[in-house]
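Good morning N.,

You mentioned wanting to compare the apo and holo forms, so I went ahead and generated the holo version with 5-phosphoarabinonic acid. This is what I fed in:
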Amino acid sequence: MVKLDLTGCDSFVAKERFEQYVEKSLAAQKVLEEETGAGNDFLGWQHLPSSIGRKELDDCLSVVDRWVGKDIDLVAVIGIGGSYLGAKAAIEALSHTFAASLGGHGPQVVFAGENLSEDYTAELLDLLRLHNCACVVISKSGTTTEPAVAFRLVKNYLEETYGVDEARERIVAITDKARGALKSLSNQEGYKTFVIEDNIGGRFSVLTPVGLVPIALAGFDIEAMVKGAQDAEKALAERSADNVAVRYAAMRNLLYDDGKKVELFASFNPKLQYLGEWLKQLFGESEGKDGKGIFPASVIFTTDLHSMGQYIQEGERMLFETVITVENAQREVTIPSDPQNLDGLNYLAGKHVEHCNRMAQLGTRMAHIDGGVPNIDIRMDRLDEYNLGAVFYFFEKVCGISAYVLGVNPFNQPGVEAYKKNMFKLLEKPGY
Ligand code: PA5
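and this is what came out, ligand included:
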């Protein structure tokens, strides 16, 4: 399960004030769990893990079986925002770093429809031509421009390459149960379709087929992931000041009220880069409204200590850091001894690379706290499906509680429409 260490904030906050924020956080947890707050028609994610059984898992896994039978070796997953970041975060976290070159674990899963770059799109089509491919298209509204453009192109490619009937076997759609262009298109074409329930917003959908189907296709154990989320759902429902979701939500709101307006999500494991992206969307879209909200940013250390480290240490003091620590590495690499020691590194001979990483983490924590950056440490045992499932649910729960403490509706995103209106007008979309 997820562990929380707030001692890196001790020198920044008085204990009594923190206890007041824990009380606020407990009140927000009650509102969330009793479904009496703003946006309470979007709380389907709260009891989602415990509602997933064998039938739901088998339905997701049926897509894997279908495409294994066709020797599919590349799947384009088309979606944007909440319709892609969870799957991308999980697959990046669980995959071999060089999986694209090594192959092996399952079909290669690539993402599309999360941008409108012509070069990206052309290069995606180059890649499809080299593989035996299929596509999962994900859009809750079924009307989002970026995935719609990518899907039109990929659908055309699949139909031209494999024929219309076979293309239908190679397309899976994940969308609303009734509304949107993707739903009517899927009905007409007879695609295998999964429903995104009305009461689950995109950024809370990683544990629905939106995340589970691509993650299963990439060869990972979605049953273990759901089990991790189920255990988190149970543990985090505890109405207690010891609840780690309550405590973390309390601390981030207290720091925000004390002028720490930016939360820097950091990890010393580069496999968590896209978890950082998922977190930015989860918190940014949920809290950034009504002129309020912690600005979420993300870094990977030690890499970014050599780019952002200077600012974090000495720039404007509006930051706090939330470090996501993976306690156990999966692999072991020992630094060898060198008789000549020309690089002067023999003091590290016989040590694991991860030992150096941990010392870097400890040294960074001390330096940043000294420099005025409060440090929150969130720990997971290891990077596997079970722990990731727990981490996803943990942050969703924190987000719901935290946004209610802040006093905003976490489940809408009215600000996202502004660019779309301008873009549609500029593109001369009918009706704009
Ligand atoms: O969290 C959200 O609701 C958004 O980020 C959406 O997921 C994103 O805008 C994509 O929307 P849709 O799935 O309707 O294409």
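The chain has a mean pLDDT of 96.

Happy to go through it together on a call whenever suits you.

Best,
F.
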